[in-house]
């Protein structure tokens, strides 16, 4: 229906194929994509039936550059101003005043806990840090040099196999969407388990890599302190992690806890929209984070710095990046078009850690790279600036973590954000709709089966499977 003088909060669209004009309501600076389905048109001369023109317009948005798929109250980012807020609290304030576990409560339940609420929360999370002893066999089934993210991703799905009571496929699909006290209790227990055991699973993956026995989560230490203890304890009496390193890692965990609909959080929601159990959804998110474009970038940054070597090699490397022969890992972001606010805090943490561990020899190269890239028109024009991964790897290296363990140090805290978004979707108004995007089909039109002796071989790269040379 078209108004003669449409109200201001409407988008008026005219389809020139038919002359049809529609007014589409604008809500929260967005319009519903389904509103365009009313714009149907007869198929044009020679147009493919697969375009489904008569069925209404579709919205094309490769890579989700401008598509909102959920209403969220959790995290807000202003990419132009370099603003990041968890439930309205600026990240800079949380980084200096809060802790990872307190921020986890904030992200998941929406408010800062009172002292008594926090004690219950912390006690439950730490209580659920212990893993079933059978998990030792699971982790020992990996080769010692298996990538820790492969172990962690598998471990989250494995973890879910212990809890049939948390599996909607067994208990009924409404297990987590009812929102009644019983359903919330089951949900919260899985949240305790996943956050509590994320550090334990990560530490077990680390011990596999080091060829060492597993360490039972200690009592009396903080969440992050317990994590460091489980990785580093080698039988010393009364071992305690270094307080500066424990605090630095806790702030890094807090900074990595959530980042609205990044690729891995979106993966958790895409997977969770089928109402699968949260362990499987978290495992999917972990797999997405593993990629070098996302959480794997902190590992890629160090490999990049090692390949550059000395600061005097930076200009040559940047030229290779401009030729698109190389990628400047740790730079660029889909949302931030200025420096990631977390990168400034990570940079400060690096100096605090280096005062304990000694400066990492790659720091000079990283600083030279940062300095040159930030004033180079190629990067300035593309609004490429350091993201959270640019400096964090230097800290992890200085703390002695193996290079391929760095993404694990991203995944462990990000379990909090994944759970916050998963819980929000399970409880959202109107219930959960399965996420099932549309496509624009440009493949072959209808064709008939061809008997094998009448076929003409398709040849050429990508058209046939690559041959494999078998050794032995
Ligand atoms: C994280 O989404 C999140 O919130 C993620 C995260 C979180 O907390 O969850 O913040 C964590 O994943 C941070 C990002 C870590 N990844 C990296 O550091 C990998 C390097 N960065 C790039 O791969 C890239 O910047 C992305 C993937 C992060 C963003 O890619 P976009 O938004 O799709 O940007 P694009 O690829 O369209 O780039 C636009 C232009 C292109 O050049 P032109 O084609 O216009 O000539 O910028 C170029 C790109 O080639 N470009 C880069 C570059 N990033 C983009 N060129 C060199 N080096 C880079 N790093």
From TrEMBL:
Coiled coil: none annotated. Keywords: Transferase, Tricarboxylic acid cycle. The active site is at 333, 389. Gene3D superfamilies: Citrate Synthase, domain 1, Cytochrome P450-Terp, domain 2. GO terms for biological process: monocarboxylic acid metabolic process; tricarboxylic acid cycle. Pfam families: Citrate_synt. It comes from the Eukaryota. Pathway: Carbohydrate metabolism. PROSITE patterns: CITRATE_SYNTHASE (PS00480). InterPro entries: Citrate_synth-like_lrg_a-sub (IPR016142), Citrate_synth-like_sm_a-sub (IPR016143), Citrate_synthase (IPR002020), Citrate_synthase_AS (IPR019810), Citrate_synthase_bac-typ (IPR024176), Citrate_synthase_sf (IPR036969). GO terms for molecular function: acyltransferase activity, acyl groups converted into alkyl on transfer. Belongs to the citrate synthase family. This is Citrate synthase. It comes from Schizophyllum amplum.
């Amino acid at each position: 229906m078209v108004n003669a003088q449409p109200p201001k909060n409407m988008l008026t669209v005219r389809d020139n194929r038919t002359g049809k004009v529609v007014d589409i309501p604008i809500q929260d600076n967005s319009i519903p994509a389904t509103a365009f389905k009313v714009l149907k048109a007869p198929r044009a001369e020679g147009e493919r039936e697969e375009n489904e023109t008569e069925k209404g317009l579709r919205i094309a948005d490769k890579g989700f550059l401008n598509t909102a798929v959920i209403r969220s109250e959790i995290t807000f980012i202003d990419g132009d101003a370099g603003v990041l807020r968890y439930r309205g609290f600026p990240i800079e304030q949380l980084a200096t005043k809060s802790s990872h576990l307190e921020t986890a409560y904030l992200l998941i339940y929406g408010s800062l806990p009172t002292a008594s609420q926090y004690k219950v929360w912390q006690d439950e999370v730490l209580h659920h840090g212990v893993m079933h002893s059978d998990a030792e066999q699971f982790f020992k089934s990996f080769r010692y040099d298996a990538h820790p993210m492969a172990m962690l991703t598998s471990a989250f799905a494995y973890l879910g196999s212990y809890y049939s009571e948390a599996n909607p496929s067994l208990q009924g699909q409404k297990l987590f969407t009812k929102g009644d006290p019983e359903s919330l209790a089951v949900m919260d227990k899985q949240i305790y388990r996943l956050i509590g055991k994320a550090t334990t699973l990560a530490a077990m993956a680390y011990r596999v890599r080091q060829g060492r026995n597993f360490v039972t989560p200690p009592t009396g230490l903080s969440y992050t302190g317990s994590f460091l203890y489980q990785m580093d304890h080698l039988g010393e009496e009364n071992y305690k992690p270094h307080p500066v390193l424990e605090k630095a890692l806790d702030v890094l965990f807090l900074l990595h806890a959530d980042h609205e609909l990044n690729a891995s959080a979106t993966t958790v929601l895409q997977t969770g929209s089928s109402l699968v159990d949260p362990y499987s959804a978290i495992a999917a998110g972990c797999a997405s984070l593993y990629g070098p474009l996302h959480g794997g970038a902190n590992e890629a940054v160090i490999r990049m710095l090692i390949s550059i070597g000395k600061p005097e090699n930076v200009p040559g490397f940047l030229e290779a990046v401009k030729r698109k022969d190389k990628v400047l890992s740790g730079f660029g972001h889909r949302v931030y078009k200025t420096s990631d606010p977390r990168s400034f805090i990570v940079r400060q943490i690096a100096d605090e850690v280096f005062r304990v561990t000694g400066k990492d020899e790659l720091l000079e190269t990283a600083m030279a790279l940062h300095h040159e890239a930030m004033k180079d028109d190629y990067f300035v024009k593309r609004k490429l600036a350091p993201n959270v991964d640019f400096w964090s790897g230097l800290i992890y290296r200085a703390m002695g973590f193996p290079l391929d363990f760095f993404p694990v140090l991203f995944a462990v805290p990000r379990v909090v954000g994944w759970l916050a978004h998963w819980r929000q979707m399970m409880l959202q108004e109107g219930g959960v709709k399965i996420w099932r995007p549309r496509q624009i089909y440009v493949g072959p039109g209808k064709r008939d089966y061809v008997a094998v002796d009448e076929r003409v071989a398709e040849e050429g790269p990508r058209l046939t499977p690559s041959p494999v040379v078998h050794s032995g």
